[in-house]
């Protein structure tokens, strides 16, 4: 499972992932190139982070 998130929604994204997977989430920052082509899963902002489970 993988979720993209902006600065605003990162806490929400982490909570959602933990709730769904029951595992500790891994949070990474997107590269500048990835940011341009990726949107937050919860709003229309550019994503800054990718949150994933193992
Ligand atoms: Zn957002």
Automatic annotation (TrEMBL):
Pfam family, one: YyzF
InterPro entries: YyzF
Protein name: CxxH/CxxC protein
Source organism (scientific name): Ureibacillus galli
The organism's taxonomic lineage, starting at the top: Bacteria, Bacillati, Bacillota, Bacilli, Bacillales
């Amino acid at each position: 499972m993988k979720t993209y998130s902006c600065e605003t929604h990162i806490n929400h994204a982490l909570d959602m992932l933990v709730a769904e997977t029951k595992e500790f989430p891994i949070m990474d920052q997107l590269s500048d190139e990835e940011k341009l082509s990726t949107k937050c899963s919860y709003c229309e902002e550019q994503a800054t982070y990718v949150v994933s489970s193992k």
